[in-house]
Amino acid sequence: MILHALLACYNRREKTLKCLKSFRSQEGLPGNIEKKVTLFDDGSSDGTAGSVMSEKLADEIITGDGNYFWCGAMRKLWSEYKGNDNDLVLLLNDDVVLDPTAVKDLLSTWEWSLKQNPTEPIIVGAIQSNDRTTTTYGGMIKISRFRPLALKIIGPSGQPLPCDTFNCNCVLISKKTMDRLNGFDKRFTHNMGDIDLGLRATAKKIPIWLTPGYVGCCDENVTSSKKKSFGERWKAIKHPKGSPVSETLYFYKQHSRFLWPLFWVTYLTKRFLYLVLG
């Protein structure tokens, strides 16, 4: 069986190398598992692609022009994917350092899920901060039936936990399921694409499970808390790595049904207050 890791990178050479090495050095895997890696390097200028090639950490490298951002890179990876229907795919962020038995734990949770339900699941790896004190990324649950987009990240509990959606920092999914979901929506540039994928999976009754324990480390990607000027705030709102207005509107319409105008007004109000007050 092929386990194919797909990940994107941009000017984070050391982090990318560390991530790939942690994947290549996984322990305790069944003998029938063959690991492969395809990396999308979106025009890095720090020599990431060359270093990855020289250390033979990827089977294939696809290059971009610096304008793909995360969702665009993942769509490109999927459009170029040449695997078989029986492949398992690991969607992995290049700043995650996997624990030595991470893949083994993901596969164990996969097998456990199939015993409960024959539908192929999506397994989300629980990720903690580098100091191992905080859950940073992983599975999310809805916290209110009246607020369908109010999501809360959950930490592992020692047993698989059901999720409504997820961050795509470390996600095990089959090629069949990815095809069934038509991959990442082309309307998203950088943010929201992974959460959208998870919500669409839930709508199709595809089981989503969080691993019983943590599978790796990655600090939360947070913006600086220093006071920004009006111009900096305006630029942040418009930037593809923020929450572009048109993409946010599309996301609300897709996943909050008839309530989307209410959430939309709330979003615009928050954006206005941020722009004016900081």
Descriptive account of the structure:
It is globular and about 55 Å long. The protein has 278 residues and is an alpha/beta fold. The chain starts with a strand and ends with a helix. The protein is built from nine helices and 13 strands. Helix content is 36%, strand content 23%. The strands form two sheets. Strands 1, 2, 3, 4, 5, 6, 7, 10, 12 and 13 form a ten-stranded mixed beta sheet that branches. A three-stranded antiparallel beta sheet has the order 9-8-11. Helix 1 (13-24) packs parallel to helix 2 (48-54), helix 7 packs antiparallel against helix 9 (260-277) and helix 8 runs antiparallel to helix 9 (260-277). It has two domains: 2-217, Spore Coat Polysaccharide Biosynthesis Protein SpsA, Chain A; 230-277, no CATH class. It has helices at residues 13-24, 48-54, 69-79, 102-116, 175-180, 193-203, 230-238, 245-255, 260-277; strands spanning 2-9, 34-41, 60-63, 88-92, 97-98, 122-128, 135-137, 139-142, 151-153, 161-162, 165-166, 170-174, 208-217. The longest helix has 18 residues, at 260-277. The model has no long low-confidence stretch (mean pLDDT 91).
